[in-house]
Write a structure and sequence with these properties.
Length: 173
């Protein structure tokens, strides 16, 4: 049985705690002390792994985008079912890892250049993968379909984040 070294486990604990705390409080209202508390460690220990809160947020954001990308890579579907299956996979991810959805929305609103760069990189890797996948599946107008797919996904994220389902389904509460 392979086990992760303790140090790597602690880093993972901090990252997972940060996903939760950042999604609950936003970037600006989150402190490393709150994250340390959530992870069950001391605040100085957080800084052994991440030099700044910004660095930790970027690592959490990168984690969120990587999880989304991996979710799409795990989708197995015939070309005519690809879009539907990818949507279903993303919806399942939204339920199993809601903090990733919220972190994406938070990341879009932060003005620090390094965070904007991370957001752009994460969205770009997802866009490029989906475009490649749509091309391979023979989906007509792949560029336009990818843009629509991503736009709908971002709109769904915003709807979820602000608890406004009518934004998507048009129905009142």
């Amino acid at each position: 049985m392979l086990t992760r070294p303790k140090k790597e486990e602690r880093r993972e604990d901090i990252l997972e705690a940060s996903l939760e705390v950042f999604s609950e409080n936003g970037y600006y209202n989150t402190t490393t002390a709150l994250i340390a508390e959530k992870a069950g460690i001391s605040q100085p220990y957080v800084f052994r792994f991440f030099k700044t809160k910004e660095e930790l947020f970027i690592a959490a954001l990168d984690r969120a985008y990587e999880r989304i990308l991996q979710t799409f890579k795990n989708v197995e579907a015939e070309p005519e079912q690809l879009v539907t299956k990818m949507i279903e996979a993303y919806e399942e991810l939204s339920v199993s890892h809601p903090n990733e959805i919220e972190l994406q929305v938070i990341g879009l609103s932060i003005t620090e250049e390094t965070i904007k760069k991370s957001t752009k990189s994460g969205l770009s890797s997802i866009r490029n993968y989906i475009l490649e996948r749509f091309h391979s599946a023979g989906i007509p107008n792949s560029e336009k379909e990818v843009t629509t797919f991503l736009a709908r996904g971002i709109l769904c994220n915003i709807s979820y984040f602000i608890d406004f389902p009518e934004l998507i389904d048009g129905k009142g509460k």
